[in-house]
Input
Amino acid sequence: LTELGQYLAPGMGIARLLGTDLAEVRLPVSAADAGFLDAQTTEAVWLEARLGARQHRWAGRLARVEQRVDAQTRVFPVIVEVDFPYDAERHGAALPLGLFVEAGLPGRPVAGAFALPRATIHDGNSVFVFADGYLRRRAVKITRLDEEQVIIGEGLEDGDAVALTRLELMFDGMPVSGKIGRAH
Output
């Protein structure tokens, strides 16, 4: 903050000191995802980043989910604490200040939900299930959707055989044959 030979005024900052025992990592979490976070969890939070050719991982803990939305980014700030972030023996590498990381945050379980590949969703809110030798379109309620998967909260039952392969032509009542596997 100050340079050699610079005059200082009362109340002027001359240095910034950082502790090495704890780092707070601020993660932006969308409103859609923030509802799944369990602020009381004791599970580890994983932070990952690539430094050069190596992928590094640091263990932390969820300190808090701030109950405000950032005015500019429209996300919830989630704070993860990492003990002794500069201790390379503990973490494999020091966690540099200001590094962009990817995080794995534990969430609340969704009772009775099914995780499926995103491609199984048709027309925004339905899937095809196999029933008595036919494809049947089934309306479902989507609890969460991301680039790779969809979490179905309502509309499927344990033992339903969902069509995971997307065909060019699929319609309700389409006859099917062959061996059908059932997931649980």
Summary: The CA atoms of residues 40 and 62 lie 8 Å apart. The first strand starts at residue 22 and ends at 29. The chain has a mean pLDDT of 89. The two ends are 60 Å apart (CA to CA).
